[in-house]
Amino acid sequence: MASNEYPITLTTFPRLGTKDDYIQPYYPPSGAALRSQFVPDEIANPHIRFPTLAGNIRSRRGRKVELNVPVFKDTNTPEPFNDPTVNYDLHNWPEDDDVRNGAAKEGHVYMDAMAFGMGSCCLQITFQAKNMTEGRKLYDQLSPLGPILLALTAATPIYKGFLVDTDVRWNQIGNASRYASNSTYLSQDPRLRKEYLDPDLIVDEEIKKRLIDGGMDELLATHFAHLFIRDPLVIFSEDLEELDLNKADHFENLQSTNWQHMRFKPPPPEKDDIGWRVEFRSMEIQMTDFENAAFSIFIVLVTRAILSFDLNFYIPIQRTTENMETAHARNAVLDRKFYFRKDPFSPRARRPHPQSSTNGEVSSATSSAVNTPPPSPPLKPVESEYELMTISDIINGSADGSFPGLIPLVESYLNSVNVDVETRCFLATYLDLIRKRANGTLWTGARWIREYVASHPAYKHDSVVSEEICYDLVKAVEEMSVKEGKHGSVGWELLRGKNTKSSTPTWFTTPLIFDLNGAHTAAILPNSYTFTSGSQIRSSISSCTFAICSTKTPIVQKRGTIGGGGQSDIPPARMQYFSKSADDFAFNAARKPCMTVMMASSSGDGGEHIGVMGRGSGDNIVHHTLQIRLNNGYMTRG
Fold first, then answer.
1. N or C: which end of the chain has fewer CB within 10 A?
2. Which stretches does UniProt call biased (Polar residues) (predicted)?
3. Band of the pLDDT at 494, cuts 50, 70, 90?
4. What dihedral angle (degrees, nearest 10) is formed by the CA atoms of 137, 318, 445, 128?
């Protein structure tokens, strides 16, 4: 790359489609394939498949793609708003009549090419299942999560140089009828009720019958018969010369031009090392590698929890479609609620207990009952199985404990497998990002971009993202991708949360309460903290032990003694001791640069806690303080 080029990960360039010189070398719009008045044909991949795809979509529709996104109405936004970039006097192609026939809607930003929709970038994860049954299960159970992760990863508040009133890209892609949320469930799970299926699903009945006659079950036949209601958009002439049954090119040609937020992919017949795969396709690309890694790993861990705990997230498909629409709202992650299943755990049928005679044998009178399963309890109405929840409830668990939360389920899975301490700490940083993004401590990318534009000196509160603002925004994203919001740098609002940065050491004080009637008493801090190397910790009492430990299996174990005496009787395994001095306890600079400590009571609930252990005698409760000093570091508290 040239010295002035840098790879960044935005869903779409903020001023794509303007008259700026943002493409080098410059190409004029209104080419023969796209016939767009905003973007040139050269913006598409030069492989013949892509201009042919765009041209065929336009030809079949009889007009260009019509994308209208509601503009964000700021204090100085014109009312009514009519997209000022639209040229109503262009006469290069017959499709130029589209705007004269009402294609551009009032109050909306108008775009006329696939580059604005399917040209967007996303974070797409593909899982390979161990067999078809597992793949079908993952396809079904991940489907209701699509809208939730779409809202959590929202990062698209600007189109064609205007702030818009949506936060995500999906509807701009979904403007094409082949691009939509999921339409089918596939698994032969007995928990799949017919009420969950789409009653208005369109299928090719002839193809469905042929598939069933060939041995395919009805659910899978319905899925593929739905794909086959459409013709392929691109066919290569050489593929028509002969039919090679050892290849799946024709099927993949059709499958790959049906875009839904999940995709079920059979193994290619010509490759033995590729199995049944499931694609999770709804998430928006994030601006930093850390965020992209966090969401990628999170959804992988969710699949492990689904399979390990046999989780059930089924809701009616129509509700998932509604959720996809809800996810488009500005700040939907905090301001909207989503339909989600209330109980993710499968009901377990009770095993019959045979009645034994006095000699221990099962009596003949009960033998038939032993072999007859008990009747299933009557099913409740489908509407009682789900409710509207906040994303924080779905991710972190509800305050009343009625829904466990995806992160606690993932953590339960991690507790059940052998994960080394270092890996668990890395995973904790990723899960912490997801947790705080869901509860609002951290911003979404869309909110950060909006706030950046709103606070820019050149912004006139008229919804226009000028070339100057766009340049500074992209430079800020470049810096963020390197520094990742550390030490108060650009992007800390969506990566680190509220932080304290000071060039001089600062002491933060929190109360500690010791009941000296006991030989050893733990004083627990009320919140969670993150420390960097170089931080120090001290207590107002002359002798005590500082420890970070778990009331169950240790995950993070750090311990040291302040002063000359005092030793804890709680000896967690794998303790690591650090240097000590008369007045304060210094973290070892060689350790990992960051450690998050979750606070909990000492009642044995399994959380980590940080506390000071005191030894003494007397009848009084003594109040002391614990102080934390930050040396060239930062601390978050929440």
1. N
2. 354-371
3. very high
4. 20
